[in-house]
Specification:
Elements: E1 2-3, H1 8-19, E2 28-32, E3 39-44, H2 56-67, E4 70-75, H3 86-91, E5 96-104, E6 110-118, E7 123-132, H4 137-153, E8 162-169, E9 172-179, E10 186-191, E11 195-200, E12 206-211, E13 218-223, E14 229-233, E15 239-244, E16 250-255, E17 262-267, E18 274-275, E19 283-288, E20 294-299, E21 306-311, E22 314-319, E23 327-332, E24 338-345, E25 348-355, E26 361-363, E27 371-375, E28 381-388, E29 391-398, E30 404-408, E31 413-419
Parallel strand pairs: 1-7, 3-4, 3-5
Antiparallel strand pairs: 2-30, 5-6, 6-7, 8-9, 8-31, 9-10, 11-12, 12-13, 13-14, 15-16, 16-17, 17-18, 19-20, 20-21, 21-22, 23-24, 24-25, 25-26, 27-28, 28-29, 29-30
Keywords: Cell cycle, Cell division, Periplasm, Signal
Domain TolB N-terminal: 27-125
Subunit structure: The Tol-Pal system is composed of five core proteins: the inner membrane proteins TolA, TolQ and TolR, the periplasmic protein TolB and the outer membrane protein Pal. They form a network linking the inner and outer membranes and the peptidoglycan layer.
Length: 424
């Protein structure tokens, strides 16, 4: 079956690349741990891929290896049109084979083609044909890796998504956007004052964040293509912790305008401010549920910080976390089944995941100063900020805790990660 995908994501990236400041040093990715049952897949070197700025097959291999799900078997150069010897690849231990080619077109674009084969069933599983300018070479490779991931696991791949985070270097703070593998970094905002709590819009075109550039915390929404910024909340006191509703029309925020911090909702253009929580304690860090009908938030109403859930219209709140006496920073998976959060136990702040149906809790990190968890859009991984050797870095862990990655940079501390959505 031929897959012909529109490159709307390329259009977004083009706007971001043209509008952003110069790129920074790339993030370094270190991988530890593998999945419990790796799928052996052969990735052939794409025919004529030397015409591309970077090796597509190399990017695909790196993506799949980073997931921890696949055992990569190298293959010699092979076009997608070449005959496939299924027995030969099976004898090498490959359950699947990906092959492709790259052609330079007269208009300067690259025509990238690929096919995926099931060597066990001796059948073709998928194919793709896309053409784009050379600067989108990495994106095409990520999309192919996504297709392989989905066809072989049944779960949508997230390699072609993007992440946002804050880098602090000296007195400068930068809100940066990068590919999910840490490449292609672009600067969305520079400031001499702190930037915190970035949050992607569901369509991936905007990021909400808190900036202290006016000497107080104010919530902004920034369009990543046009770079236009909108002040969403500049109330008296603290304006913090923005998060988007699933339909992208509203944000939940934590405001101290009436004294102590409570949860509010506000339209994405800054209109329609409405108070949702009403307690005598501190209610903060709101996050919409996957269906948009509820809000998870952190509250100390029971004495210590715990995570609660209430309707978006307000009313009674139900406590969600009971393990440990200090649980903060709730994040919900896209299917609404798993809650990630930071829990303090034995003096360590570590990442946990809670199965909301069974109530089973799983510690996912072995570090001591974790913060700011964020799910990948397919719900299979969680990115978070941590600390090692007095330097802040980003880490990624699979929801079963088996696969771990560390993203580091030589230029300052990186923190406050948020994983962007699938692009349509």
């Amino acid at each position: 079956m031929m897959i012909m995908k529109k490159m709307s994501y390329v259009v977004l990236c083009a706007g971001l690349l043209l509008g952003a400041s110069g790129a920074q040093a790339q993030l370094r990715v270190e991988i530890t741990g593998i999945g419990s049952n790796q799928i052996p897949v052969a990735i052939a070197n794409f025919a004529n891929e030397s015409v591309a700025p970077q090796s597509l097959s190399g990017i695909i291999k790196a993506d799949l290896a980073r997931s921890g799900v696949f055992k990569i078997i190298d293959g010699a150069e092979m076009s997608e049109t070449a005959p496939v010897s299924y027995d030969q690849w099976k004898s090498r231990g490959a359950d699947a084979l990906a092959a492709g080619s790259v052609q330079a077109m007269a208009d300067g674009r690259l025509d990238v083609r690929y096919k995926l084969y099931d060597t066990v069933k001796s059948a073709q599983l998928s194919s793709m044909n896309n053409a784009a300018a050379p600067q989108f070479n990495r994106l095409l490779a990520h999309k192919i890796a996504d297709d392989i991931y989905e066809k072989l696991t049944g779960t949508k791949g997230a390699f072609a998504t993007r992440i946002a985070y804050v880098t602090q270097s000296g007195r400068e703070y930068r809100l940066e956007v990068a590919d999910a593998d840490g490449e292609g970094i672009q600067v969305a905002l520079r400031s001499n004052e702190p930037i915190i709590s970035p949050s992607w819009s569901p369509d991936g075109t905007k990021v909400a964040y808190v900036s202290f550039e006016k000497k107080k915390p104010i919530v902004y929404v920034q369009n990543l293509v046009t770079r236009q910024r909108t002040i969403v909340s500049n109330e008296k006191g603290s304006n913090s912790a923005p998060s988007w509703s699933p339909d992208g029309t509203r944000l939940a925020v934590a405001l101290s305008r009436d004294g102590h911090t409570q949860v509010y909702t506000v339209n994405a253009d800054g209109s329609g401010l409405r108070r949702v929580s009403n307690s005598s304690g501190i209610d903060t860090e709101p996050q919409f549920s996957a269906d948009g009908q509820s809000i998870y938030f952190t509250s100390d109403r029971s004495g210590g910080p715990q995570i609660y859930r209430m309707s978006t219209s307000g009313g009674d709140a139900k406590r969600v976390t009971f393990g440990g006496s200090y649980n903060i920073s709730p994040r919900i998976s896209s299917d609404g089944k798993t809650l990630a959060y930071i829990s303090r136990r034995d003096g360590n702040f570590q990442l946990y995941a809670l199965d909301l149906a069974s109530g089973q809790e799983l510690r996912l990190s072995d570090t001591a100063n974790d913060e700011s968890p964020s799910f990948s859009p397919n719900g299979k991984y969680i990115m978070y900020a941590t600390e090692s050797g007095r330097r802040k870095s980003l880490a990624v862990v699979s929801v079963d805790g088996r696969v771990k990655q560390r993203l580091t940079t030589q230029a300052g501390n990186i923190k406050e990660p948020t994983w962007g959505p699938f692009m349509k």
